[in-house]
Write a structure and sequence with these properties.
With about 160 residues, the protein is α/β, with parallel strands linked by helices. The protein has one domain (about 1-155): Leucine-rich repeat, LRR (right-handed beta-alpha superhelix) (Alpha-Beta Horseshoe), CATH 3.80.10. The protein has 5 helices and 5 strands. The protein has a 5-stranded parallel β-sheet with strand order 1-2-3-4-5. Helix 4 links the parallel strand 3 (about 100-105) and strand 4. Helix 2 (about 60-65) packs parallel to helix 3, helix 3 (about 80-95) runs parallel beside helix 4 and helix 4 (about 110-125) runs parallel beside helix 5 (about 140-150).
């Protein structure tokens, strides 16, 4: 019985610690975005390169894109967005009418994320550049991205 209680306590502490770390990362990302805005008033570019963004906290970026329609370029390179984060971002890109350039270099995005992004850019007519260089995109993802190409859109992977 004592072993079960200790196990449950460890599980509880682990869960609380994970939630605390996630909240801390979200708070840090929100402060970083505010700092960028403060230091670059009127800028239409949001540079979040190497900002420890992943599928757990990409919602902060999505919230910013939804609230600030002046952002035309976003750099999310060298994060750990992965397929799940790419799927979340793709959902936003489907209806976004201000972004013209999205850079996602080195984000552990594979076929699943690439397929979701390909579907999004088929619906999005304002995006001009999608850069997925140095990710883990295989044949299925590359095929979907090729099918999504249109005149006026550059896709790199």
């Amino acid at each position: 019985m004592t072993g079960i209680l200790i196990g449950l306590l460890i599980l509880f502490i682990s869960h609380v610690t994970h939630n605390f770390i996630l909240a801390s990362k979200i708070n840090h990302l929100q402060k970083q975005i505010k700092s960028i805005e403060y230091n670059n008033p009127g800028s239409t570019k949001l540079n979040l390169l190497n900002s420890d963004i992943n599928s757990d906290n990409i919602s902060v970026v999505i919230d910013k894109l939804r609230s600030d329609k002046s952002i035309s370029s976003i750099d999310l390179s060298e994060n750990n967005i992965g397929d799940q984060g790419a799927i979340i971002l793709a959902d936003e890109l489907t209806n976004n009418i201000s972004l013209q350039e999205v850079t996602l270099w080195t984000n552990e995005i594979g076929d699943e994320g690439a397929v979701a992004l390909a579907k999004a850019i088929q619906a999005n007519r304002t995006l001009k550049i999608l850069d997925l260089t140095n990710n883990k995109i295989g044949f299925k993802g590359a095929e979907a991205l090729e099918e999504a190409k249109r005149e006026g859109l550059e896709i790199y992977y």
